[in-house]
């Protein structure tokens, strides 16, 4: 079994949790949605910190081989700092809205996590089709 790379985990963690919040979050009130968004954001930031080590964080897998399209994500100089910025700002933004969001929290916090994962994916993508 192949383990996912750290970069792929940082990309897909907020995407998966955001989608789960949208599907299974509570209809009214804020309940678990805001806490989940804050803690997933903090976890994702902590998972992204090892990217600073300067190691090679890259994943290249065939996606649609007949068209030469692949899942290719990589961290380089500028994208590293932007990915860290996104992962830092996500829990800050979720925590800052803690008392402001009173209804439809699952849409707000689920959308915030989806946006975070999408931005990280865009910053790390190295294949135009994946981008």
Tell me the layout of helices and strands:
Blueprint: H1 6-24, H2 31-48, E1 58-64, E2 69-74, H3 77-96, H4 105-124
Antiparallel strand pairs: 1-2
Give me some keywords for this one:
10% strand; mainly alpha; 131 residues; globular; two-stranded antiparallel ribbon
How would you portray this structure in words?
The protein has 131 residues and is mainly alpha-helical. Helix content is 59%, strand content 10%. It has four helices and two strands, in the order ααββαα. It has a two-stranded antiparallel ribbon with strand order 1-2. The longest helix is centred in the middle third of the chain and has 20 residues, at 77-96. The radius of gyration is 16 Å and the shape is globular.
Secondary-structure class: mainly alpha
Q: Counting H and I runs of at least 4 residues, what is the number of helices?
A: 4
Number of strand elements: 2
| Spatial separation of the terminal alpha carbons | 27 Å
Percent helix among the residues? 55-70%
Helix/strand order, N-terminal first = HHEEHH
Radius of gyration: 16 Å
- Strand arrangement across the biggest beta sheet: 1-2
Major beta sheet summary: 2 strands, antiparallel
Give the averaged pLDDT, no decimals.
88
Shape from CA axes? globular
Unreliable runs: none
Strand content: 5-15%
């Amino acid at each position: 079994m192949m383990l996912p790379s750290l970069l792929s985990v940082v990309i897909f963690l907020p995407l998966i949790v955001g989608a789960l919040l949208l599907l299974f979050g509570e209809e009214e009130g804020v309940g678990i949605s805001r806490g989940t968004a804050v803690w997933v954001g903090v976890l994702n930031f902590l998972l992204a910190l090892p990217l600073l080590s300067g190691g090679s964080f890259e994943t290249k897998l065939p996606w649609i081989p007949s068209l030469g399209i692949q899942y290719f994500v990589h961290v380089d100089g500028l994208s590293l700092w932007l990915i860290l910025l996104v992962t830092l700002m996500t829990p800050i933004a979720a925590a800052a809205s803690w008392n402001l969001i009173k209804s439809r929290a699952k849409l707000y916090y689920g959308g915030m996590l989806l946006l975070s994962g999408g931005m990280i994916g865009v910053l790390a993508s190295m294949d135009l089709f994946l981008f």
